[in-house]
Design a protein that fits this description.
The protein is mainly α. The chain folds into two domains: 55 residues, Arc Repressor Mutant, subunit A (Orthogonal Bundle), CATH 1.10.10; 131 residues, Tetracycline Repressor, domain 2. It has eleven helices and no strands. Helix 1 crosses helix 4, helix 3 crosses helix 4 and helix 4 packs across helix 8. The chain is elongated. The model has no long low-confidence stretch (mean pLDDT 93).
Length: 204
Amino acid sequence: MPTRPYEQRQRAEAAERTRRRILETVVEHLRASPSQPVSVEEIAERAEVARSTVYAIFGSRAGLFDAVAAHVLEHDAYDRLLEAKFETDAREHLRAGFQSGVEMLARERDVVRALFSMAQLDEDAVGAVVRRREQERAKGMRRLVKRLREQNLLAPGVSPARAEHTLWVLTSFESFDLLYTGRGLSADAAARLLTEAAERALLK
């Protein structure tokens, strides 16, 4: 007999619960022990699944960390970050991008810090994930600078390359964390300061 629709749905829901449990197990490990290596064997044991299940779901250790990064970062603030590019005014695009970007990083600051730190030691898995995320950020900077230039908003003497370099620094996790953790600013205060710095450095 063919599998009934509700059985298929139950299996899909069970698979999604297992997937989320594995991801949450990794996130909990990163929160609790950010300096400790993450092994697939340990994660599988804590999530109460077989090691082969982790690989069956995520394909590889790199695939697991790619999913972890998405799980941590891709929430409502990430959606607003993507929507910022649809702002008609490029200046508002910049402001909305800084605000949503900071909110995204602040939501899981400790986990993001752990991933950035691990990238230095785990080049093949975590390093590759962080590089892809940073490449996406670089593309976003190029799009924003192009719009600012097209709308004649860049200040005299500010070249597109200089604007990209400046935005690259100001939108980085490091810049956010120096204010949020290092100086104890709230996410909103950090976003305002970074936005003002960008506007004063780059715009008319």
